[in-house]
C-alpha cells in the first residue's frame, strides 16, 4: 500500500504538469497534485509514523485503507474541476474526505492517549495538521452552500490545506526524517517541535484569515516563515552544509525547506497585492512539494519495501533512489524560479525532474536486490 501510494503520488505530479501544459483549469491542476497525489501519501506516511511516535503496534487495516478513500475522493474532485464529472459529485467527495480525516484524527488521538509516558512531540504536529485539513474541508463545503462567501472561504481552504495540512505535516516529519536520513541524531528536535508548534499554528491561522483581512498577511508570514527559517538554521548548525549536500535525499529535503521559505515570502507579497495568487500555488508545488516528496520517498520507500532490520537490499535500493538527487532538486528549484518569473519553459524543467525521479524509482523497484 505504501509503495503504491508513493508511486501514485509521482504519477499524480506528472499528471498535474501535463494538465498545466495542456491548459487545464488551474484548480484541476492543483487538486491533481494535492488531493490526488500528496494527500493520500501524507495519510499513508502518518499511518507509518504514528506508531513510531507513540511506541505502539502497527496501524489497523481500516486505517491503512483510509489513504485509498482519500485518493478516490481526490480523483472525484479533479474530475469535477476538469469538467468530466457533474458538480454535485463535489459535495460527496468533500463529505467523504471529512469523514476519513475525522476517523484518522480520532485514531491518532487514541494512540496518543494510550502511549506509555508522553508521546513524541511530533504527534501534536500531525494532530494539528489533521485539524487544519478538517477546517479546510469544512470551509469549502460551507462555501459551496453559501455562494456569497465562497471567495473568502476558498482562500481559507487553500491556506489551511497547503500551509496547514501539508506544511505542518512536512515540518513535523522533517524534524524526525532528516536525522534518520543522515544517520546522526539531532538532540534539539524535541525542544524545537514543542517550541515551534504554537507559532506555526498561529501563522497558519493568520494566513487563512488574511483572505478577508489582508493586513494580517505580514504577521502570518513572519510567524510561519520564522519556524521554517529556524528549522533550516538548526540543520545547518547540526550537520553542516557539506554533510547535507553529500546525500541526495538530505539535499532534496533541504531544498524543499528553502523552497517553502521562498513560497511563504512570495505568498506574503501576493497577500499585499504584489503577485498573482496562481504563482504562489505554482511555487508551492514546484519549490516545495516536488523536492519534499522526492527526498522523503528516497529514504522511506526502501524501509517500506524491506521492513525490519537494515539489509543490503534496502541499502542498495536507497543508493539507487538518491542518485541524481542534486540534479533533480536543481531542476525543481530552477523550474519553480522560472515560473515565478512568468517563463512557462519552467514546466519543462519540472517535468525533467519528475521523469528523472520516476526513472530511478522504477529501476529501484524492478532491480534485483
From TrEMBL:
Look up keyword Chaperone and say if it applies: no
The membrane-spanning stretches of this chain are 32-54, 66-84, 90-110, 122-146, 158-177, 197-215, 221-239, 251-273, 279-301, 321-341, 347-366
Q: What's the domain of life for this entry?
A: Bacteria
Give the keywords, sorted: Membrane, Signal, Transmembrane, Transmembrane helix
Specify the signal sequence span.
1-22
This protein is called what?
A: NnrS family protein
The upper taxonomy is: Bacteria, Pseudomonadati, Pseudomonadota, Betaproteobacteria, Rhodocyclales
Amino acid at each position: 500500500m505504501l509503495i503504491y501510494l508513493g508511486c501514485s503520488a509521482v504519477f499524480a505530479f506528472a499528471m498535474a504538469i501535463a494538465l498545466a501544459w495542456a491548459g487545464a483549469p488551474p484548480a484541476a491542476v492543483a487538486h491533481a497534485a494535492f488531493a490526488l497525489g500528496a494527500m493520500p501519501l501524507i495519510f499513508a506516511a502518518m499511518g507509518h509514523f504514528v506508531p513510531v511516535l507513540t511506541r505502539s503496534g502497527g496501524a489497523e487495516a481500516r486505517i491503512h485503507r483510509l489513504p485509498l478513500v482519500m485518493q478516490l475522493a481526490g480523483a472525484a474532485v479533479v474530475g469535477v474541476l476538469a469538467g468530466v464529472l457533474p458538480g454535485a459529485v463535489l459535495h460527496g467527495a468533500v463529505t467523504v474526505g471529512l469523514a476519513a480525516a475525522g476517523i484518522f484524527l480520532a485514531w491518532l488521538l487514541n494512540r496518543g492517549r494510550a502511549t506509555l509516558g508522553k508521546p513524541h512531540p511530533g504527534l501534536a504536529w500531525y494532530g494539528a495538521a489533521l485539524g487544519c485539513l478538517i477546517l479546510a474541508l469544512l470551509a469549502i463545503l460551507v462555501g459551496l452552500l453559501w455562494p456569497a462567501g465562497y471567495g473568502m472561504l476558498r482562500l481559507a481552504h487553500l491556506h489551511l490545506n497547503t500551509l496547514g495540512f501539508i506544511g505542518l505535516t512536512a515540518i513535523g516529519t522533517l524534524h524526525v526524517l532528516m536525522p534518520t536520513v543522515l544517520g546522526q541524531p539531532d538532540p534539539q528536535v524535541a525542544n524545537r517541535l514543542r517550541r515551534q508548534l504554537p507559532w506555526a499554528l498561529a501563522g497558519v491561522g493568520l494566513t487563512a484569515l488574511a483572505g478577508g483581512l489582508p493586513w494580517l498577511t505580514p504577521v502570518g508570514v513572519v510567524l510561519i516563515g520564522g519556524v521554517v527559517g529556524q528549522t533550516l538554521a538548526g540543520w545547518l548548525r547540526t550537520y553542516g552544509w557539506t554533510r547535507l549536500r553529500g546525500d541526495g535525499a538530505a539535499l532534496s529535503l533541504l531544498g524543499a525547506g528553502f523552497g517553502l521559505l521562498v513560497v511563504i515570502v512570495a505568498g506574503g507579497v501576493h497577500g499585499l497585492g504584489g503577485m498573482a495568487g496562481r504563482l504562489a500555488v505554482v511555487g508551492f508545488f514546484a519549490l516545495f512539494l516536488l523536492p519534499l516528496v522526492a527526498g522523503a520517498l528516497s529514504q522511506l520507500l526502501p524501509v517500506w519495501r524491506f521492513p525490519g532490520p537494515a539489509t543490503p537490499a534496502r541499502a542498495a535500493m536507497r543508493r539507487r533512489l538518491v542518485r541524481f538527487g542534486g540534479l533533480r532538486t536543481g531542476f525543481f528549484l530552477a523550474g519553480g524560479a522560472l515560473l515565478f518569473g512568468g517563463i512557462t519553459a519552467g514546466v519543462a524543467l519540472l517535468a525533467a525532474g519528475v521523469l528523472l525521479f520516476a526513472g530511478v524509482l522504477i529501476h529501484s523497484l524492478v532491480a534485483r536486490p
